[in-house]
Design a protein that fits this description.
Layout lengths: L1 E6 L5 H13 L5 E6 L6 H17 L3 E5 L4 H8 L4 E6 L1 H9 L9 H17 L4 E6 L10 H19 L3 E6 L2 E6 L4
Parallel strand pairs: 1-5, 1-6, 2-3, 2-4, 4-5
Antiparallel strand pairs: 6-7
Length: 185
Amino acid sequence: MHELILGGCKSGKSRCAEQRAIDWLAWPDRSATLLATALPGDPEMRERIARHREDRARRVPALSAIEVPLALPEAVTDHSAAHRILVIDCLTLWLTNLLMPLSGAPADAARLKTRQDDLVAALRTARGPVVLVSNEIGWGVSPMSSEARRFVDALGVLHQRVAAACSHVTLMVAGHELEVKGGRA
């Protein structure tokens, strides 16, 4: 079972994904790994990452973490296992790292499609469950800059492709789960 959890900022997406890991870990001989995509590009982001690490360690101490700002498809392939749930937090930052990197050139359309293809293929062949977190940002007004519009469009396409590879899609609103696809057993 793979699940995409979408929502706005502070909607409860990460906590929902952590709860999926806690539920998974309630069974014997299981493990959980977080694939974190954030990069500390400024002091506030460094503080935010540190706070998330501390909070996560307190809430889900058995959730190990691996930082994969760009190599997400490879990490899914390398770390998926029948006994392990992978939590990816988050697709929005992974896409940001591809399209608006802190250094180097942004991914062009061909490279972006290839990386999305790689991620979808990794999900389809993952040996254990994967829970993916991402921000739903396409409900607002159309952004003024072409770069921002490209990002909103690319994230919408990524969400559609990942949702097609998942058995479940959940929308988080004000800390509450809305079932979009699939059902909770």
